[in-house]
Amino acid sequence: MTKYKLEYIWLDGNRPVPELRGKTAMRAFDHAPTLADLPNWGFDGSSTMQAEGKSSDCVLKPVALYPDASRKDAYIVLSEVLHPDLTAHPTNARATIENDPDFWIGFEQEYFLYQGGRPLGFPQEGYPSTPQGPYYCGVGYKYMGGLARKIVEEHLELCLAAGINHEGINAEVAKGQWEFQIFAKGSAKAADDMWTARYLMMRLCEKYEVDVVLHCKPIKGDWNGSGMHTNFSTKFMRETGGKEYFEALMKAFSDTVTEHIAVYGPDNHLRLTGLHETQAIDKFSYGLSDRGASIRMPIHFVKNGYKGYLEDRRPNSEGDPYQIVSRILKTINGVPKPKHAVA
To answer: 317 with 239: CB under 8 angstroms?
Structure first.
């Protein structure tokens, strides 16, 4: 029998965006554990803004299992939060996602690395002498410094070892700003992977005494904010599509701007200004290859008969992937498919 370290992680009751929590259980198995082998566990919800002290017990239900390469004989156990009667807790946004195994999602997570209260590479006072621009996909110590890439590369390896479908990394437009991309099939899978990837990044940065800043506009002025562009498609969008359906879909997104912005991350008015490759927060637009639109159509979307995926550029870097996926699916599923297409 081998004792395994099982790091149960979950989302707390912080608002408007939950934060990650985690604790380790030691469990003995005569084989590498599977998700089915893992028991529910409990925690003090009064310490995570999820219960009152007089009735503080909450339940952790394992929903995804990831090998943890940073520890020996270890796994990360992503968990949903339940009430003691095993019903979904109100903070459990994952439970609100409609199950669609053919829903494909890709997240582009932008973030800043901070040390000493400022982005990596920023001077003690003021701003870098070189404005934003050359840092995007940049190379060399002058632009990238000596620490950020070490963290980013180590995080990539941890994600790959965990089985997360990491699609790529790049330095972003502002100094100290980076991005990683995650893609998965199934309505909850990409969000599961994104929360776990965030956890791995935050835990990794502890040893470097660096903070991961997800706020969408940590540097005011002429510096890009941070988004989490969300690429999505259903089986119908990929295989059938059509101009009629696409226009109906865009009308549905236009009619639910308020509902989408409400779950696309806090302080988005600071980022969605109509500048820095964004559409204004109170407007809705879509366009072919238009990074200033609310929703961008990829370059071949129209040529392919209005089929494929779309990119919602409004979600910001601090948004909850579960809430974002839940809202996008709800809007899509409210759009009837053309009768001739269904037939």
So the answer is: no
What the block records as the tokens of 284 is 């809705």
Beta-bridge partner residues of 129: none
Place of tokens 């003995």: 28
CA distance 181 to 332: 23
- Residue 343 pLDDT grade (very low, low, confident, very high; cuts 50, 70, 90): very low
Residues 6+ apart with CB under 8 A from 183: 104, 105, 106, 107, 165, 167, 190, 231
Residue 230 near residue 282, CB atoms below 8 Å? no
Structural contact between residues 21 and 44, judged by C-beta atoms closer than 8 angstroms? no
CA 265/CA 217 separation, integer angstroms: 11
Using CA atoms, how far apart are residues 148 and 124, in angstroms rounded to an integer?
Answer: 17
262-277 confidence digits (pLDDT tens): 999 999 999 999 887 8
- Both tokens of 21, joined, read 């929590």
Instruction: Say how many C-beta atoms besides its own lie within 10 A of residue 136's C-beta.
Output: 15
The tokens for 242 are: 């059509």
* 190, two tokens: 């990409």
The verdict on whether omega for the bond into residue 16 sits within 30 degrees of 0, i.e. cis, is: yes
Say which residue the tokens 């809007």 belong to: 331
- What does the angle CA 340 – CA 341 – CA 343 come to, to the nearest 5 degrees? 65
Task: Please state the pTM of the whole predicted model.
Answer: 0.96
